Amino acid sequence: MKVCLLEKDKDSLWNDYIKNNQKSTIYHLIHWREVFENSFGYKSFYLTAIDSANSICGVLPIFLVNGLKRRLVSVPFRDRGGPIGDTGDVIIMLLKECTKLATRLKCQYVEIKTLTTLDEDVKGRVPYHEIFHWVNSYVELKCNVDEFWKQIGYKTRNKIRQAERANLEFIDCSQSNNSIKMFYEIYIRAMKNIGVPPYPIKYFNNIHKYFIANNAAKLFLIRRKSKLLAAVIVFIHKDSVHYGFAPVIIEARRSEEHTSELQSH
Prior knowledge:
Layout: E1 2-5, H1 11-20, H2 31-40, E2 43-50, E3 56-66, E4 70-74, E5 84-85, H3 88-104, E6 109-112, H4 120-125, H5 145-151, H6 154-165, E7 168-172, H7 179-194, H8 201-210, E8 217-224, E9 227-237, E10 240-245, H9 250-264
Parallel strand pairs: 4-6
Antiparallel strand pairs: 1-2, 2-3, 3-4, 3-5, 7-8, 8-9, 9-10
Helix pairs in contact: 2-8
């Protein structure tokens, strides 16, 4: 078994492995290479474990990020995308090769993002420090509508009823030619309101090109009459849908508060 960089003509083999691996996420797909390279200029290193039959048995997508600290990251701006492999030994080989790469590139550290902690066997053989930044919530979608309505809880049901009373429209704009432009107008205002620097629009244009346009993601807009108030991008991978971005402008929050006040009187 060996670990090497993915060859450009092997993209389809990489994606085939991702689609057939139960622990994979959408952020393991090869298209994120183009998204991050074209949007931010991040150099990518798609580490690939190859077995004795010359087949892929593990992968680790990693990106070189130059900021306050030079580092390798898997995957930038997202909460998942770490190593996956057929065995613990494969994971260890991928992480060790990543460490060597970081040394060659003179990086200060490596940041690996996963939904679950590494196996105890891997922890004992690859030194690393765990940091828990995110809390992930899951909702089962296999039940019928009535069961789902009960499952989401009183507070969420009440929020949905408030939106209905406020006559908010939830529109699928995934295939619209100007969907990213409308999304970005909301996004810019939302980021300004909370004082956070925005991502460039080309980042979302690339997400649309490689995921939304190929039905691997959806873009929804929320409006009241003709006024846009919020937007949502969700990603679709196998049998799961998960949140990507959800900017909301401050006027929408004020509208919600006003609706709650009317309800209480």
